[in-house]
Amino acid sequence: MTNQPTAPLDLEERRRVRDAWTATRRRIAALEAEAAELLVAQIAFHDEDVAAAPHHRDAIHRSMVAEYAAAARLSTGTMEFAFADALALSTALPRVREAFHTGSLSSSHVREIARASAVVAEAIRNRAVAPETMALFETAVLVVAEAETAARTRVHARRVTSALVGETITERHRRAADERCVTVRSVDDGLAVLTAILPEWAAVAIADRLSQLTRTVIRGRDMGTAGAAGPTSDPGSTRDAETARDAGSASDAG
Question: What's the mean per-residue pLDDT of the chain?
Fold first, then answer.
């Protein structure tokens, strides 16, 4: 019995599907760029609110991030980065912004470029490099970003940053370690803002622990006094409950 000949591959149809997929990805990137522009508009509203009530700057910012995170069902950390990326596009990266709108760059590429540009922006603010350095950074990074993956763009952007700023990632980490501190700033109504400069992993761990304690407080409030007649908690649980109440009070004050 002879084998039946296989049907010839429809290469043209396969090519059509691939091109349609690529075009759709570009449209998605363009829509992401439009979403970033809307965040830029919100940042303008935020600045107006801060100008009217400068002592409540932190509360205004947290409220804005929380509102958009809830609307998009995203974490507040992700939303923070989205606002930061949008601000970088609008103030320092005009060519990246244009490429984003045309779909030449994905949101992942833009994210890596924007975050790497923060190092250059910091150097410009500190007058360590000339303002024109940002344009050089943007040009050097775009050459790779429009042809490579976001991961390779990240590596290239960091190398460009180190070359232009003259400071390696290790040196930046060492300098950042020397700048660790805790400050307290008084605000209205008997409140204060506590700011801690510390390693990111420690900050994330602290925020996560406080969130867990706050959720414990909320669950306790929902239960009311139902647990008052229950079995006595062990000392460790009692300490956790007391800490949770303190965290809940701090969260309400903020």
Answer: 82
